């Protein structure tokens, strides 16, 4: 009996901007299960460009050897020996000239301006290339502009990994809540402050709890963005802009630091059947969307104080009422959180790019 013909696969060339934990994990999995999944979707993916802050950059139109790239970076060595073709001096030059079909933007977050990530995405879209980001900055600072740019050039701007480690927040709202309007949301979106407050509930001081989080790699050496609400404000903007059509920027979000929550306040809340959390909220007020971030003492029955979760989000919709999502180890939903989940979000967005036009597509 004759064999059925093998479906031809189209090439999908990828440029990685950022090769930290998420970028390296994605590269590892692209050589295994991710590659197989993409092949089943009809594409043969290869990484043709990598740019890093510490190890330089490399471009090879034929596809970079990912195992060698990973080995070089882990050894603290530059990627230069893998480069083929004319010299490329800057990240902008790479974005504007390298051979790729999809830019995956994984640079570190700069919460106050969203740069250089927003410019990276804009340069790629303006060149007629798809852009995927796990960086909250472009969504928080320029979602509407970047979507318009993507539409104008017939490409996609996707960002499932930008909030809650890739838990399918944006896909859920776009596909499963079709026709419903998000009127408001509230969420606990910063795992560092949650872990500090949980430790304070059992008598650990704020400073000691922060030191534990830093030792575990959960908090940065400079934790100001977490403690002072900048990280949560950027996430709130990303959600409001993507789910509610807002045009907020992090500076528009009223912020209150979690540093003011004392051990006495935590004890008093516990006696009253409450727990402190850093809460991000947004709501429609007339034609505008307003957002704020600050510590709140919440009753134990509130979903936002669920233990064992790294992130909780409750959407208030006009047609479905409240819809809650939680992610994190031991939580209500989701998995281990972190690197693997964000890497999966990139794969999910790549599958969107690989899908035929008009099938399952997110609005971009």
Written description of the protein model:
By secondary structure, this protein is an alpha/beta fold. The chain folds into two domains: 172 residues, Rossmann fold (3-Layer(aba) Sandwich), CATH 3.40.50; 163 residues, Dihydrodipicolinate Reductase, domain 2 (2-Layer Sandwich), CATH 3.30.360.10. The protein is built from 13 helices and twelve strands. The strands form two sheets. The chain has a six-stranded mixed beta sheet with strand order 3-2-1-4-5-6, with helices on both faces. The protein has a six-stranded mixed beta sheet with strand order 8-10-9-7-11-12. A hairpin with a 2-residue loop joins β9 and β10. The protein is globular, with a radius of gyration of 21 Å. The N and C termini lie far apart (45 Å). The N terminus and C terminus are likely disordered.
Mean pLDDT across all amino acids: 90
Pick out the low-confidence regions. 1-6, 329-336, 359-364
Helix content: 25-40%
Helix-and-strand structural type: alpha/beta
Number of helices: 13
Amino- and carboxy-terminal Cα gap: 45 Å
């Amino acid at each position: 009996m004759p064999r059925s013909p093998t479906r031809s696969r189209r090439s999908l060339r990828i440029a990685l901007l950022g090769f930290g934990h998420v970028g390296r994990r994605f590269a590892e999995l692209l050589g295994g299960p991710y590659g197989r999944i993409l092949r089943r979707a009809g594409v043969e993916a290869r990484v043709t460009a990598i740019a890093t802050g510490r190890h330089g950059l490399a471009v090879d139109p034929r596809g970079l050897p990912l195992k060698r790239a990973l080995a070089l970076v882990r050894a603290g060595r530059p990627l230069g020996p893998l480069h083929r073709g004319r010299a490329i001096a800057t990240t902008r030059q790479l974005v504007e000239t390298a051979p790729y079909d999809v830019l995956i933007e994984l640079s570190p977050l700069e919460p106050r301006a969203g740069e250089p990530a927003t410019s990276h995405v804009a340069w790629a879209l303006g060149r007629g290339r798809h852009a995927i980001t796990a960086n909250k900055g472009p969504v928080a600072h320029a979602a509407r502009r970047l979507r318009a740019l993507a539409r104008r050039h017939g490409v996609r701007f996707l960002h499932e990994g930008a909030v809650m480690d890739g838990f399918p927040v944006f896909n859920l709202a776009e596909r499963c809540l079709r026709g419903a309007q998000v009127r408001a949301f509230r969420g606990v979106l910063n795992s560092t402050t949650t872990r500090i407050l949980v430790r304070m509930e059992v008598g650990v001081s704020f400073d000691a709890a922060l030191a534990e989080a830093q030792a575990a790699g959960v908090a940065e050496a400079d934790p100001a963005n977490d403690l002072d609400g900048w990280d949560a404000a950027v996430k709130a903007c990303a959600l409001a802009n993507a789910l509610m059509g807002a045009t907020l920027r992090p500076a528009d979000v009223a912020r209150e630091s979690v540093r003011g929550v004392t051990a006495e306040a935590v004890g008093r809340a516990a006696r009253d059947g409450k727990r402190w959390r850093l809460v991000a909220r947004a709501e429609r007020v007339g034609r505008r969307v307003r957002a704020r971030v600050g510590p709140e003492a919440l009753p134990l029955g509130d979903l936002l104080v669920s233990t064992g979760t790294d992130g909780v989000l409750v959407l208030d919709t006009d047609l479905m009422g409240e819809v809650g999502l939680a992610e994190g180890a031991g939580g209500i939903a989701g998995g281990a959180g972190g690197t693997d989940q964000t890497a999966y979000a990139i794969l999910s967005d790549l599958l969107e790019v690989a899908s035929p036009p008009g099938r399952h597509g997110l609005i971009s």
